[in-house]
Design goal:
The chain is mostly helical.
């Protein structure tokens, strides 16, 4: 409600950090790539977290933050270090991993993550070297 700068100031006072080394990754994609103060990118990230399973195009995302598509692509990459497409992929993988660990069928998981087939999900797991449970690796 009060903006990113205010939230960061409050977090410095009240957040309890887990003990982890400097090189250890964040625990979740929902925390990764969020350690910046660019409100427009936070807005896009928040939108994507809630709509990663939908077809999102750069033009409609750019309209949400009153930017040109080209500027949004550049700013997102400069701010987070990854592309919007990579961010969406990682959101989908995180959600898929959770659903698979809860024993949902891969067909349901694929559809819930916005894919047309389970092959697309398998391909994404391979692309990012995510560990797919063994019972889902072969067709």
């Amino acid at each position: 409600y009060f903006g990113t700068e205010r939230a960061s100031a409050i977090a410095r006072e009240v957040v309890l950090y887990l003990r982890r080394g400097e090189g250890d990754p964040q625990l979740s994609i929902f925390l990764q790539y969020r350690n910046h103060l660019e409100d427009r990118i936070h807005t896009i990230q928040e939108w994507l977290i809630h709509h990663f399973n939908e077809k999102n195009n750069i033009e409609s995302l750019a309209e949400k933050v009153f930017m040109s598509p080209r500027n949004l692509v550049r700013l997102f990459k400069r701010t987070t270090g990854i592309t919007i497409g990579q961010y969406i992929d990682k959101l989908r993988l995180e959600h898929a991993s959770k659903l698979l660990s809860d024993n949902y069928k891969i067909e349901y998981v694929s559809q819930a993550c916005g894919f047309n087939s389970s092959d697309q999900l398998r391909h994404l797991f391979k692309k990012y070297k995510f560990s797919l449970p063994s019972e889902f690796k072969s067709r």
